[in-house]
Amino acid sequence: MSFSVGIVGLPNSGKSTLFKALTKKQVAIADYPFTTIDPNVGTVAVPDERLKKIAEVVKPEKITPTIIEFVDIAGLVKGAHKGEGMGNQFLSHIRPCDGVIEVIRAFKTANIREEINPEKDIEIIENEFLMKDQELGDNVLTAKPRIYLFNIQSDRDPDLGTCRDPGLCINLKDEADMLDLSKEEVKELGLRSQLDQLILACYNVLGLITFFTIRGEKETRSWTLKNDSDILEAAAKVHTDFSEKFIKAGVIPWKELIEAGSWKEAREMGKIKLVGKEYIVQDGDVIEFKI
Ligand SMILES: Nc1nc2c(ncn2[C@@H]2O[C@H](COP(=O)(O)OP(=O)(O)O)[C@@H](O)[C@H]2O)c(=O)[nH]1
Ligand SMILES: [Mg+2]
């Protein structure tokens, strides 16, 4: 199971623009056979320099990045909790998500004449969450970790307020336009995508960490885990056999592996720590399960 982030916001805030830009990063579905094939769900590779650096040392045939899912959730309007617009349908789409990105319109267009008011838009969204939670007597929606994405225009209007924390100011139109340009053109125009930063911000706000596995020279892979998980939970991510028949695991921080130059050398230098099932996995651990 991968972690998922719902993209919510009022109509025309830029949700689908963001979704389209993010899913350009879509990875081959074959590696993730359990991913649902749904046009509103996109599987996105989590950018990680560490994976690249480990692969430079290990030289595997295949590098597989861990993923995070984004869901384009349409239909949030004022009164959705009472059934306005797509009403309850949209709220049920948010429920299974681990967190949400609130896309807030902070750009002007000729065809959108209403006043732009990011703070008011946030209030409407949060109020819909709150009303729904109160109605159902739980706190499912208001308790979701969130990121505020202020969809700004290049010549940012200072009256539109500053971004909220945790959040980012991104020009989604630029992000979408960048998709049609070559790498060289993007560089020439001095553009810089902030999508990687957004993906990592989601990772942080959801309290996720990454660990790595090396399968000989076959495959080097990154995996996502909740912060504070023990090694059995990490093992279960990789293979049920690894958790059910777990005996111990060899663990080394990714940087030490790079410094050693190879797994073999790291072992000879005594850098690979043998751990039992109580071990709490640390962000950046490279793990070899022994069964
Ligand atoms: N000027 C400008 N227009 C945008 C921006 N983001 C989205 N739009 C436009 O706003 C409209 C709605 O965008 P869309 O992503 O479909 O919004 P959604 O309803 O939230 O899914 C489209 O016509 C987009 O081209 C932006 O950053 N700047
Ligand atoms: Mg849309």
Describe the secondary-structure layout.
Layout: E1 3-9, H1 15-23, E2 41-45, H2 49-58, E3 62-64, E4 67-72, H3 87-94, E5 99-106, H4 118-136, E6 146-152, E7 167-170, H5 172-178, H6 183-188, H7 195-205, E8 208-215, E9 219-226, H8 231-238, H9 240-244, E10 248-253, H10 254-260, H11 263-268, E11 273-275, E12 285-290
Parallel strand pairs: 1-4, 1-5, 3-9, 5-6, 6-7, 8-12
Antiparallel strand pairs: 2-4, 8-9, 10-11, 10-12
Helix pairs in contact: 1-5, 2-10
Bound molecules: guanosine-5'-diphosphate and magnesium ion.
The CATH homologous superfamily name of the largest domain equals P-loop containing nucleotide triphosphate hydrolases
Number of helices: 11
Number of beta-strand segments:
12
Taking pLDDT < 50 over at least 5 consecutive residues as the criterion, the unreliable ranges are none
Can you tell me the CATH architecture of the largest domain? 3-Layer(aba) Sandwich
Kindly give the count of domains. Answer: 2
Strand content: 15-25%
In helices, the fraction of residues equals: 25-40%
For the record, what CATH class of the largest domain applies? Alpha Beta
List bound small molecules: guanosine-5'-diphosphate, magnesium ion
Any overview of this molecule?
The protein is built from eleven helices and twelve strands. It is α/β, with parallel strands linked by helices. The strands form two sheets. A six-stranded mixed sheet has the order 2-4-1-5-6-7, with helices on both faces. A six-stranded mixed sheet has the order 3-9-8-12-10-11, sandwiched between helices. Helix 4 (118-136) links the parallel strand 5 (99-106) and strand 6 (146-152). The longest helix has 19 residues, at 118-136. Residues 15-16, 74 line the site of magnesium ion.
